[in-house]
Amino acid sequence: MSGSPSLERAFPSLRRGEYRITSPADGRYNCIAFAAGDTTRYWWPLDPLVGGYHWPLPPGSGRACTLSNFEAAFATLGYEGCESAELELPYEKVAIYVGANGVPTHASRQLASGAWISKLGSNVDITHRTPENVGGRAYGDVAIVMRRPR
Questions:
Q1: Can you give the pTM of this predicted structure?
Q2: Are 145 and 85 in contact (CB under 8 A)?
């Protein structure tokens, strides 16, 4: 699938030719689940009894929407903090974004090719060149990059 003018308006750092739509819109999962490799459910750190969302941390702990809880969630999948979003072939990486208020907003995952993939809300999945391509007004900036062995 090719580019989309509406995506380029919402994400000004996406430029035609630097991203590709890879899956149609699907509201069953969100960007956090997609970065974690789960396309069957929506991940968000709200109480599952209220929101019905999956979160890999035990009930009663880690349910606040904080960067440290997102780090802890990805740590349950074997990720640990790292210094750079640059490709390191033995590792798979995720980038976690925060808005101006410091609250997490988005996550993307690096492929073995060095490209990044993102789920844009309940919209489409895309492949993009850098984590910064989806940063900015909508999602804020990359706050932390984590990695795990492939």
A1: 0.92
A2: yes
Helix (H, G, I), strand (E, B) or coil at 121: coil
pLDDT digits (tens, 9 = 90+) for 99-116: 999 999 999 999 999 999
Angle at 140 between CA 138 and CA 146, to 5 degrees: 125
Q: Give phi and psi for 68, each to the nearest 5.
A: -65, -35
Give 25-89 as a DSSP string. Answer: --TT--HHHHHTT--SS-B-SS-HHHH--B-SSPTTSS-S--HHHHHHHHHTTT-EEES--S--T
Q: What residues does 93 pair with on adjacent strands?
A: 147
4: left (phi over 0), alpha (psi -120 to 50) or beta: beta
Number of domains in the chain: 1
Q: Which helix H or strand E contains 23, and what residues bound it?
A: strand 19-23
Domain span at residue 59? 5-149
